[in-house]
Amino acid sequence: MKNSRLIVLMFFTLLLACSQHNDTLPGGADGKLRIKTATVSRADMADTVRFYGRVSLRYESLLASQFDGRLSGFSLLPGDQVAKEQKIGEIIPPQREALLQVLPQMDARLRPLLLKQIKTIPLTSPLAGSVLKVFRHNGDVLQKGEAIVHIGDLSILDVYGDLPLKALPQARHLKEIQVHFIDFPHPDMALKVAAVAGGVDRQKQTVAIRLTLPNPDGLFRPGMIVRMFFPGERHRNVLTIPRSALLEHEGLYSAFVVKNNIVEERVLKIGIKDDRRIEVLAGLKEGERVATQKAYSLTDGMEVVVE
Asked: Residue 266 sits in which domain range?
């Protein structure tokens, strides 16, 4: 009796396992992969020229000492604001420091005259802006030409980009270019084209382009990375497929054509690509159907079920 119950239990366990195995097959119990397809059709395609750039200061100053001496009266820190021609410290020449040490021993009537002969040298900001970096601090002994503080005007900035040389003819006529900020939550902006460089970077085959970035609220910072883009060529009534149908392997493009539930891999030559569709220059015909789902799971000659 116990053996009979054991046999029945084993039978139902085996039946359940088989049922679960069938459920895990890619296309169901028949083992055929179930896919979706789309028709190769004609449409107008517009290329988008994309390249990267960086936010930079337009007005900045690396303030340095013009004389040997000791830095005095200097208290700036990064983030402080300064006005144009604001006194931010002074340089005490070595001769004045030596004079101050012996001054108490001199005739009191000579002291004012000597102090006028060897004066301190005021240190003033050449522009209004923000303190970006402090190199030396109050009391430091400086040599002539040594950097003290970096000041930059954040109210107006520039965006420099490396424009691909092939896009230069189109960019020359643009008044604005769209800018997307990488890793910074801000809507895309249309910025004015300020200048296009006359020279070419021979190694990268790019041309420097400069955009104007107004920054009255101080929201943007030098060093931010941006993606720049603008409409490029427009191709009318060309063969297209959904982007999900395109396969790429080691620089070669292909797609799977589905006919009578059998897939055939075709090598493609493509043109314009956007976020939704791909222009096909060679490899497909209008009206053919291509796999748009599970394409990377297919192999040439595989039988499938089209949903």
From this structure: 29-46+235-306
